[in-house]
Amino acid sequence: MNWLYNMFDSFRPQFEKRGNLAFFKPLFEAIEFIFFYPPARTATAPHVRDPLDIKRYMTIVIVALLPSICASIYFFGPRILLMILVSYAVGGIVEVIFACIRKTEIHEGFFVTGILFPLILPPATPLWVVAVGIFFGVFFGKEVFGGTGHNIFNPALVGRLFITIAFPTIMTSGWTAPGAWRGAVDAVSTATPMALAKTQGVLTPAADLLMGIPSGSAGETFRLGIIIGGIFLMLTRVSNWRVPVSYLCSVFIFAFAISLFGGVSSGGDGAAASGGLVSTAFNFGLFNLLGGSVLFAAMFMSCDPVTSPFTVPGKFIFGIGCGLLTVLIRVFSGYVEGVMFSIVIMNAFTPLIDHVVISMRYKSVKT
């Protein structure tokens, strides 16, 4: 690799402060960092090395997403790759432009945002809508706040929220039956499990949801793979278990309680008679836990270290708040899904949550 290092070394003066290509220095450094470690080293001992830098942090997240990515391609075809490519291209351009204007490094955080965004979209979403969504998410969800590490809201969810409100017809008609592109099923367009539950009171079996048989967003269908990837993130400590666990537990508990005490229909006319009220509430809670984007959002989006609280009690509060809002929006609003709204709303409360926790734990000493 010496020849490659020498090549980068020969081009480096052109990208320095007085070079002809100084404006593109962040892009040059980002490409160089893909192949080599940064040249900066501590001058004297001790030389502390942390193996979990931003680059490896993002790499581990992408590895955890591989089961969902592979499953989405298997269920919905190579078009998912085009959606990912468009997301990376458009969002990457925005990142590069802002990095060049600010004269800062290009952070690897976009590698996760760029792949998360297409995975939370309907599989048949037009590519131009993907481009508009990722542009809005990166520009208004992250860069206007100062870039990676300064954003208040999850950029992928900001983009998804924008195109959901701006193009409601497109975003509610892009549901494709898994396997339709291979001719495995007859239906090309189908209702999602959440839509069936909202309009007809039909709860999709848990086994079907786990294996990705019903339709849904590109990355949310194969829920068994999501669980495996989420556990991998927790074991590697890239994800703090407190947020996703409290989120998932609260979704089940609140859905169970609303069905049990609120008289919410959950499973058809004969469900209560055949299985009892508690059994019906349990099925409703399990369906809300596995249905829609709850698992994917809990494992890969709610635990974003930038937009979620850093205090331990705050993480539990954040997860419980996401779960409560998700169930309330699903049950009592006109929307069939409440995940993206709940996380974005709780993102706005993150600074307040941390402030209150710190204020209560470290009270001022009166003299």
SSE layout and pairing:
Elements: H1 2-15, H2 25-35, H3 54-76, H4 79-102, H5 109-119, H6 127-141, H7 155-166, H8 168-171, H9 193-200, H10 206-211, H11 223-235, H12 242-262, H13 271-290, H14 294-300, H15 312-332, H16 339-361
Report on the structure:
With 367 residues, this protein is an all-alpha fold. The N and C termini lie far apart (64 Å). 63% of the residues lie in helices and 0% in strands. The chain has one domain. Helix 5 packs parallel to helix 7 (155-166), helix 12 packs antiparallel against helix 14 (294-300) and helix 15 packs antiparallel against helix 16 (339-361).
**Biggest sheet, in brief?**
none
Distance linking N and C termini: 64 Å
Question: Could you say which overall geometry the principal axes of the C-alpha atoms support?
Answer: globular
Series of secondary-structure elements, N-terminal to C-terminal: HHHHHHHHHHHHHHHH
Percent in helix: 55-70%
Rg computed from alpha carbons, rounded to a whole number of angstroms:
23 Å
- In round numbers, the mean pLDDT is 83
Instruction: List the uncertain runs.
Output: 267-274
> How many E strands?
0
- Domain count: the total is 1
Query: Which structural class fits the helix and strand makeup?
Result: mainly alpha
